[in-house]
Amino acid sequence: MTDASAGPPRVRPRQSLSGRLWLVATLAVLLSEIVVFLPYIAHERSLWLTGRIEDATIVVLAAANTTMDTARHTELLHLADTEAILLKDRNGTVKIGDVTMGSDASIDLRQEGLLLRIRRAMRALVMHDNRLIKVSDSSPYAPDTEVRMWLHEGGLGRALWNFAGDFAVLSLAIAGVTGGLVYLAVLLLLVRPMRRLTGSIAAFRADPERTTPLDADNLTVLSHDEITIAGRELATMQHELRAALWRNARLAALGTVVAKVSHDLRGILTPALLTAERLQLNPDARVQRAGEVLATAVDRAADLVRRTLDYAREGPPPLAFTPVALAPLVTEAAELTPQPGHPLHLTNTIDPGISVLAERIQLFRVLSNLMRNAAEAGARSLRVSARCDGLVVLVDIADDGPGLSQAILGELFRPFAGSGRRGGSGLGLAIARDLMVAHGGDIQLLESGPTGTTFRLTLRLAEPAQPGEAGLQGERIAPTTSADV
After folding, report:
1. How far is CA 112 from CA 9, 458, 476, in A?
2. Which region holds residue 155: left if phi is over 0, alpha if psi is between -120 and 50, else beta?
3. Rounded distance, CA 167 to CA 221, Å?
4. How buried is residue 19: exposed, middle or buried, by Cβ count under 10 Å (0-12/13-18/19+)?
């Protein structure tokens, strides 16, 4: 079993969300730097070779305009880091060094594309060859002049290695800073709020009655973001759950108390009921009226005790489902339901062939509760209809009462809160909802207003509807049966 008092489980730093996102961000930046490095290294190679072409051009022009001996030419070639230079233009060709020497590779910078430059730059960076290469390009000072030079590739490799080292240091610094910023942002905006959420959930799970609900306003530094909304929903759920636990605790205590005193209370009420019956036999009309009032009060007290005890017991009532003819049961419920003041006029339009899968006694209780509520609210007529919708039956119970007040609509099916009359227990609809859920169905309020109130019951159909059967598919209304009960 999990120790509820141990608090939320701790996550190792390397397994935490912030740590993993830091690693992902760092790797992403490094991968991006690698992608950027390839064209940059190719560009650096082109710049280096172009710089050698410029130096070679200057050397050739200087040698052509002055008289120099071979030693002076060798010195100029050494300063340009080349072995030989050839310059060709419309006026002729100028040579310095042995331009007839062979080369290990020939490179024409004018014909290189990006991919070729990248491939040659990576080779010079990785292979460390000191090959003799011939490089051709146009003169930067005269586009119609071609410059060729012979040089060793070792200098290019060293230059590219220096550039790669500087780029790697800069990339690691950028990746580290970016990863650190991502880590701090995730830690501040996600991880800490989530830790508060999980901590509140764990603490509330351990002791929901004493734990203070989450304060969503101080959950994160941002406002109106997803985590703030989640925190507010969690706080609302915690408040509602605490209220539900408090109500359930009171119901459990109430059930225990009622179970203990119900027997004694019935014994106390029995003499009062006998006295009321004797008073009703008295020839004096005023005494008879007093006996009727006393008997009614005793019946209401006994009924309240019974209904409270039935609702407060744990678990749904055990049900034995059988096919139940719906129309006769509605008529029977209307006939046997106590209706104070005046009787209800029932209009039963349910097809006699409709049967539902239910326990007759418990479904009778649901119908009786709804009819009693309608009569107590002041309704004078009741219309009950039913239609099949696939494998379920929808039963609509409509009265012509004054409707329900807006104050109780939100608490309609909550025990001790959904009563619309003074002195009501608020258990009738709560019991009806529990019984309908136990039947695999539901009860809902369709409408309520000055012209009346309509409830809908959802029940399972006992037998599939036959094609063309009247009333089952809603094609026509079954013969109407009206009765005053």
Report:
1. 60, 79, 87
2. alpha
3. 37
4. middle
Chain centroid offset of residue 42 CA: 49
Cα 426 from Cα 412, distance rounded (Å): 8
| Ranges of the chain with pLDDT below 70 | 1-18, 64-70, 73, 217, 221, 223, 251-252, 254-266, 300, 303-318, 338-342, 407, 410, 415-427, 463-485
Q: Collapse the DSSP code of 386 into the 3-class scheme (helix H, G, I; strand E, B; otherwise coil) and give the result.
A: strand
Measured CA to CA, the distance from residue 204 to residue 240 in angstroms comes to 12
pLDDT at residue 317, as a whole number: 57
d(CA 372, CA 428): 9
223 secondary structure, DSSP code: S
d(CA 203, CA 191): 18
Q: Are 107 and 135 in contact (CB under 8 A)?
A: yes
pLDDT tens figures, 467-484:
444 333 333 333 344 455
**397: three-class secondary structure by DSSP:** strand
Residues 440 and 292 in one domain: no
Q: What residue numbers bound the domain in which 457 lies?
A: 322-484
- E strands in 10-131: 84-89, 92-96, 105-108
Q: Do 52 and 100 fall into the same domain?
A: yes
Contacts 24+ apart (CB under 8 A), 197-201: 197/227, 197/230, 197/231, 197/234, 198/8, 199/7, 199/8, 200/234, 200/238, 201/8, 201/234
Please say which residue of 158, 176, 194 terminates a domain. 176
Predicted pLDDT of residue 5: 44
Q: Give the whole-angstrom CA distance, residue 54 versus residue 109.
A: 13
Domain annotation covers residue 130: yes
pLDDT digits (tens, 9 = 90+) for 279-299: 778 888 887 788 787 777 777
Element spanning 358, H or E: strand 355-358
How does pLDDT run across 333-378, given as a tens digit for each residue? Answer: 888 776 665 678 889 999 999 999 998 888 988 998 888 888 888 8
Question: Are 105 and 141 spatial neighbours (Cβ–Cβ below 8 Å)?
Answer: no
Same-domain status, 298 and 389: no
Same domain? For 347 and 439 the reply is yes
Cα 467–Cα 468–Cα 470 angle in degrees, nearest 5: 125
- How many beta carbons lie within 10 A of that of residue 367, not counting itself? 23
Give dist(CA 111, CA 46) in Å, integer.
Answer: 12
> What pLDDT was estimated at residue 337?
74
Tell me: do 328 and 476 sit in the same domain.
Answer: yes
